[in-house]
């Protein structure tokens, strides 16, 4: 009977370790949470196309563009240590024909998980990029375009 208890204990330990390292779900406070969604919305103005190339250490999301008021999103699972990071190179041409470009961390798990939870919305505007803060119900300036 003691051998059976040791086998059962070992099996449970392996199962817990496997669940903790899974890329599809992760336990937090005894609960399993799902994917995080990041949305990018072009609010630059009519006839202004927003271009960007986002990636993480593991995923290259490719070069993309959005017309005014269009949005695009992707989803992912944050890692157990909340070090998940996506950054984007971005560029657009203003109404005066001036090229505006920059690069920023668009999603940092430790920074963003408490501000936007699992649905993070980023609004691209002429003065910068804003993240919707779902705790305070407001837009927070996250990034200002270089002059």
Automatic annotation (TrEMBL):
Signal sequence annotation: 1-30
Keyword Transmembrane helix: no
GO biological process, one term: rejection of self pollen
Pfam family, one: Self-incomp_S1
Primary location: secreted
One Gene Ontology CC term in the entry: extracellular region
Tagged with keyword Plastid: no
InterPro entries to which the protein is assigned, alphabetical: Self-incomp_S1
Places the protein is found: Secreted
Alphabetic keyword roster: Secreted, Self-incompatibility, Signal
Family statement: Belongs to the plant self-incompatibility (S1) protein family.
PANTHER family: PTHR31232, S-PROTEIN HOMOLOG
The protein's name: S-protein homolog
Lineage: Eukaryota, Viridiplantae, Streptophyta, Embryophyta, Tracheophyta
């Amino acid at each position: 009977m003691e051998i059976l208890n040791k086998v059962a204990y070992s099996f449970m330990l392996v199962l817990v370790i496997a669940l903790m390292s899974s890329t599809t779900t992760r336990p937090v406070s005894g609960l399993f949470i799902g994917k995080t969604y990041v949305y990018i919305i072009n609010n630059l103005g009519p006839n202004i196309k927003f271009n960007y190339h986002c990636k993480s250490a593991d995923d290259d999301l490719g070069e993309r563009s959005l017309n005014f008021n269009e949005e695009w999103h992707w989803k992912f699972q944050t890692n157990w240590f909340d070090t998940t990071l996506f950054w984007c190179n971005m560029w657009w041409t203003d109404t005066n024909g001036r090229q505006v470009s920059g690069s920023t961390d668009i999603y940092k798990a430790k920074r963003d998980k408490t501000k936007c939870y699992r649905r993070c919305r980023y609004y691209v505007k002429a003065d910068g990029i804003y993240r919707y803060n779902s705790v305070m119900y407001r837009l927070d300036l996250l990034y200002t375009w270089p002059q």
